[in-house]
Amino acid sequence: MAFGSGKKVEELEAEVERLTQWVAHLQGTEAVALQAETGAARTQLTGLHAEVAAAQRAAAEAVSEEHAARSQLALDLDEASMQEAGFYTFNHPLADAVAYKSALANVQGRMKAMIRAGQAVEGSTTWTVNNSAVAGRKMVKDTSTLMLRAYNAEADSLVRVLRPHTLVSTKTRLDKSAMAIERLGKTMSIRIAPGYHRLRFEELELTADYQVRKQQEKEAERDRRAQLRDQAKAAAEMAAALDKLRKEQEHYRNLLGKLDPGTDPEAVAKAQAKLDEIGASISGVEQRAANIRTGHVYVISNVGAFGPNMVKIGMTRRLDPMDRVAELGDASVPFRFDVHAMVFHEDAVSLETHLHQALADRKVNRINARREFFYATPSEVRDIFSQVAGAHLVEYRDTADALEWRASGSITHETQGPASKTDLALDALSDATSEAYEPVEAHGDDEHPSRHADNDIGDELDDLGTEEGDPTATPTMDTPPENAAPATPALQDTAPQPIPAQWYVDPNDATQWRFWDGQQWTNNVSPRA
Length: 529
Prior knowledge:
This protein is α+β, with helices and mostly antiparallel strands. It has 13 helices and nine strands.
């Protein structure tokens, strides 16, 4: 071994040892760092899991709230559609309008008590102004009063314009008003007290209920008065009939007293038979007058006004039931009613009630039970009528004549426009000129009107043509000016002809003539003598 090699080996071994210790040190440091990072990552992961769980819970709550809101919205929309259709559900069913008015007064009294007690609006109790709690409380109180005034003004306005079918939308508006006040007063934690807000809701509901009940009572009173009028007419008719029958009865009694059974037995027998007939009639009228349930039950329809699938079933005590049908077909409907059945019954009230009950699910007006219209065809009512009335139903007509409707051209389901004055007068002129039109003698070369042979027809047509401001008025023949020119030759009587081109009374100024060229008015005018 060369000199010094042992020392070199020792140095190398020492270096290896040093390096080994350094590597060991470095490996330990990285392990600690990695372990620390791993722990931090695990902690962060745990936090993320907690956040995910919280988000999932919040999402589940949101979904639940959404479902609840959708369900409530569906109920509100359904209620709104029912109210718009006239089907109103009372929120606070009470006996009559007086009871609703009393309940409203009670609710308003409770609201006033909450306002006096300072419980109608809530606000912060820790608010300070320049480190002054007293000034803070005063500021909160003043702002709360201002917010409450705004809320009450909105609520009072909604109550004034409330209609039963707008109840849902009105409550929504009041809710939005309360939320807007809460949002604006968030700094001072000011909001409308939930209890006061509920009282305002109850006031809206009671107001809507009161309006509906009041309307129902008005309609009931109107129907009651109509029924009393019908009964009064029936009583007057029966009294007049009895008076007439008694006079006739007295007449035949006198006649019977003057006849001699020995000389004219046949005349006596006829007079006695007539007297017996009159007595039976008097007895029948007296029974009807005494029994208010006696009358006629009718089934009528109006195809032109209500269509083929609607009928009216009613009852009248009038001696002539067609008088009642004629009254129903007055100016309130465009066409007269057609009668499908008219049945006399000793208990007409019960018969009518049974028919109404059998068709209760087809009633047109479900709010006012006195509106006796039903969604049913006459043939469907016949089957029910035959079951209820039995042998009393002698005759029934399934098909409505609807003569006025069919004659009006409405069978095509197209509404005819009103006949214009021009059309009416043109028809009149065509008929008039075809019957009595004579030319006048020539007085010049200009175009001038001719004289109508019938002065009455001319006067009538003159009235038609002298309405002010009607640019389409029909030419009207009248006395021509003195310098009238020859008119168009007389029209033939075979068929109505167009209005001849000549001079007529100006439809806009009866003091002058205007020339009609056969199709329209011209600007040629001439003063009337």
